[in-house]
Amino acid sequence: MVADRPVTFLLGRRDEPTDGVEDYSIHLGRALEERGVPFSLHRIPWSTVGWVRALLWVLRQAHQWKHTWVLVQYTALAWSKQGFPVAFPLVVLTLRLRGCRCAVVFHDPSGFPGTRFRDGARRAAQMASMKAASFLAHRSIVTIPLDRLSWRPARAAFVPVGANLPLIEAGRPARDGVLTVVVYGVTGGERTNKEVEDIAFAVDRAVARLAAEGKRVRLRVLGRGAIEAEPLLRVTAPNVELDLHGVLPAPKVAGLLATSTVQLFVRGGISSRRGSAIAGIACRLPVVGFSGPETASPVTDAGVVLVDEGDRESVADSLARVLQDETLRQDLSARSQRAYELWFSWDAIAGRILSVLNNNPDG
Q1: Is the bond leading into 166 cis (omega within 30 degrees of zero)?
Q2: What is the rounded distance in angstroms from the CA atom of residue 71 to the CA atom of residue 26?
Q3: What is the distance between the terminal CA atoms of the chain, rounded to a whole angstrom?
Q4: Which are the contacts of 212, defined by CB distance < 8 A and separation ≥ 6?
Q5: pTM greater than the 0.90 cutoff
Q6: What is the spatial order of strands in the sheet that 101-106 belongs to?
Q7: How far, in Å, CA of 343 to CA of 31, rounded?
Q8: Span 36-59, pLDDT tens digits
């Protein structure tokens, strides 16, 4: 039983400029504390001291955590600079040898996509590492439903992620009456151009339709990749009023989301591990976006309007329809609020985590 015994969060390399896994750990830890379970957070310094010294560090530190739960947070790039996390199972093995109760939280449970030979090799290394770590751990926690995985982790349970944001009163209309489409985060790298073009196409069509009704539509882009996307947005959506922000403190992000009208999500298919999408649900927004292989309940129970991934025409039509229909927006907002309270609030997530640690992991 966990009871009032401490829970330790163990993280790998820090992500920059923001670290969603660290934020996840802190928010979840605070929710556990509210339930009487103290927590601590530590990073394994493998990226600065090398793997041999890092594992010796784990060996020394783990005696403090004997017979208590250690939640090891997995993303491929947290445990390998190039996405080949082959040393990660050794962390779990070391914890087991020191008598710790070990649970691995798989934030990237599907492996990286891609069709190049290197992509396939990287994905194979990731899958092998995850399977080995799952076999060694006492519990495996995945952030998408188990039936959406191509593999079955040992002793596995599904617990979605939450929004790394403070609670804020949502649904407040902008003072100027402009309908605001918000995009939270733009993917970098080779996917940027297509993603920005999808955003521009959908919002440009919405602007044209709403202009016929005498209404203004603004595009608000914030978070990672927002500033980098500005030049292409200005070229592909010259008629769209832009409100651009980069990486901001969480309270400001929450405020900008809460004063938006609808969230547009075209960063691949929406899923319960995508914190940027969950942030919109937490702020009680309607969400228009793509569905994909990971798309399933409970994220589909929220106020989402989804089309097949890559269907630019349909996502544009859906966005315009939601902006035009206030009654529909209110219904979607209410659904997002219910889904947030039941699945995506940190209290709900903490309760599920404790149930997994204390009881049957498949329950």
Answers
A1: no
A2: 12
A3: 15
A4: none
A5: yes
A6: 39-43, 7-11, 69-74, 101-106, 139-142, 156-158
A7: 14
A8: 999 999 999 999 999 999 999 999
Q: How far is CA 317 from CA 210, 288, 306, 320, in A?
A: 12, 10, 11, 5
Both tokens of 67, joined, read 């017979």
Instruction: Give the type of residue at 68.
Output: T
| Partners of 305 in the β-ladder | 288
CA distances from residue 348 to 6, 27, 89 in whole angstroms, order as listed: 19, 12, 29
Between CA 29 and CA 79 the distance in angstroms is 21
Residues paired with 101 in a beta bridge: 69
At 345, which amino acid appears?
Answer: S
Yes or no: say if 174 and 290 are a contact pair by the CB < 8 Å rule: no
Structure tokens at 242: 């832009």
Least confident of 33-47, 179-193, 254-268: 179-193
